[in-house]
Structure prediction request, 284 residues.
Amino acid sequence: MKIESFFDTQSNTFSYVVSCEETKQCAIIDSVKNYDPASGRTDTQCADDVIEYIEKNDFNLQWILETHIHADHLSAAPYIKDKLGGKTGIGSHIGDIQKIFKALLAEDDFKTDGRQFDHRFEDGEKFKIGNLNAHVIHTPGHTPACITFVIEDAVFVGDTLFMPDSGTARCDFPGGDAKTLYNSIKKILSLPEDYRIFICHDYGSSQRNQVANITTVKEEKEKNIHVGNNICEDDFVRMRSERDSTLKMPFLMIPSVQVNMRAGAMPPVEKNGIRYIKIPVDVL
Prediction:
């Protein structure tokens, strides 16, 4: 197994290409398409870097995977699929998120059964990337539909966990819940201690200037500032609730959710031939 990371500086997002060196099959996890909310322009440079890497190595793209509906960047899944093929996949609880934002955005014709994705993974479901063994853990809390991909000894946690000195995901988005997140993190931390954890976002910390993206189950259990050293559920929920009340809305949340609940596709074209992002006023 080979794992290559790609970092988007606009959203501080890590995307990954996981490849089976025996079969040349690969998967992309949490791809990024850039978006400028001031102009409404999109940019595919991050996705193009991933595509170039896959083509250069003669890989065959099997999966385009999402750990959850991201609120801080657009998914590049349709763009990549058009270039390289592959199937899109997300957690089976995607409909829970779609229903929330269908109502918020008055998307009357939008279907909320996850059909926009090629595959919806159930908790515990097993699958393959070439000869690599993979399975899914449902890890809600940050959102109701978050999942973790365990591929051999590599664990892709999305936003559920950060580096040990950065803590854990916020839980104040629609459908989020701190108690649920705590129990999801316990599932991840019950994996073998030497399993590597690959995170989706990093913003640095007071202890280091550079971003980082790889830790281990053991390091998270011992050193994570929010859940390490067996912090109890009540203390975690209290901390998470107090902290979340001070956080600002992610810069790209409104456009990101509208696009990502469509598996990365833009909203439908209006009568004038233009697509639009809706912004709910005085609601969120």
